[in-house]
């Protein structure tokens, strides 16, 4: 059981990214089920996930899953059309294969060596890839208490795909401030010799070089820094997402060295 600390709007950055990046898969699915795994002591994140996903996929249903029965009982009064709550854990106790599983601030308390097995178990529950679909999506990451800084890994049925860094730009001193919110699989790898450390080092350098753009605001400085960073790192998104204070990089570029 996690500590369960939950604040309204804490996961807004992750939710909006999911709606933008995975909305088409949710719309195409015959039964678009999304799981909020480990929603915590209050159901706010599941309630908000439903609202945000339905802007992209009006038929989506959200199931909040918690390992603590008392939390499930407390959440039941918030059930509505498209939103239910169930007791369970990594087995993901929902019928069929979900098109989305979101696990935010869940694996932070686990050992790094346990992450791969959890990822494998959760990815096995995702909707499979087909000729016309890449399959379901697992989004696993960590954020601060009010959602200003967030880093998550996106995985498909085949395994990890990308890492996304997202922040409230007005509160950012330098990009490496996001290191404290790296997911469990990466947080202990932010040391010399590891790819994620090199990435954050280069990001800080690009941020420093983009300092003149601060005259036009933090957003323009971020966009310029990411544009320069993309010359050496496989950034997968574009200015439309950068303007949101985001940057997404291919997992293979940041994966821990064995």
Automatic annotation (TrEMBL):
Record's keyword terms, sorted: Methyltransferase, Transferase
Record InterPro entries: SAM-dependent_MTases_sf
GO BP term (any one): methylation
Keyword Methyltransferase recorded: yes
One GO molecular-function entry: methyltransferase activity
SUPFAM superfamilies named in the record: S-adenosyl-L-methionine-dependent methyltransferases
Protein name per UniProt: Class I SAM-dependent methyltransferase
Protein source organism: Streptomyces thermoviolaceus subsp. thermoviolaceus
């Amino acid at each position: 059981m996690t500590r369960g600390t939950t604040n309204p709007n804490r996961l807004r950055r992750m939710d909006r990214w999911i709606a933008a990046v995975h909305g088409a898969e949710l719309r195409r699915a015959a039964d678009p089920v999304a799981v909020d795994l480990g929603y915590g002591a209050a159901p706010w994140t599941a309630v908000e996930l439903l609202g945000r996903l339905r802007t992209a996929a009006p038929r989506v249903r959200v199931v909040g899953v918690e390992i603590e029965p008392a939390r499930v009982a407390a959440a039941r009064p918030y059930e509505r059309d498209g939103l239910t709550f169930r007791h369970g854990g990594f087995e993901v106790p929902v019928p069929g294969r979900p098109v989305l599983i979101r696990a935010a601030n869940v694996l932070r308390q686990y050992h790094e060596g346990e992450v791969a097995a959890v990822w494998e178990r959760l990815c096995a529950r995702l909707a499979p890839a087909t000729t016309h679909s890449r399959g379901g999506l697992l989004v696993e990451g960590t954020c601060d208490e009010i959602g200003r800084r967030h880093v998550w890994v996106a995985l498909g049925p085949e395994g990890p795909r990308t890492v996304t860094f997202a922040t409230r730009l007005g509160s950012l001193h330098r990009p490496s401030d996001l290191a404290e919110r790296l997911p469990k699989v990466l947080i202990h790898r932010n040391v010399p010799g590891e790819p994620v450390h090199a990435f954050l080092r280069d990001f800080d350098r690009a941020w420093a070089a983009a300092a003149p753009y601060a005259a036009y605001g933090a957003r323009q400085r971020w966009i310029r820094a990411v544009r320069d960073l993309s010359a050496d790192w496989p950034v997968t998104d574009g200015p439309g997402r950068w303007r949101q204070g985001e940057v997404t990089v291919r997992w293979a570029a940041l994966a821990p060295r064995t």
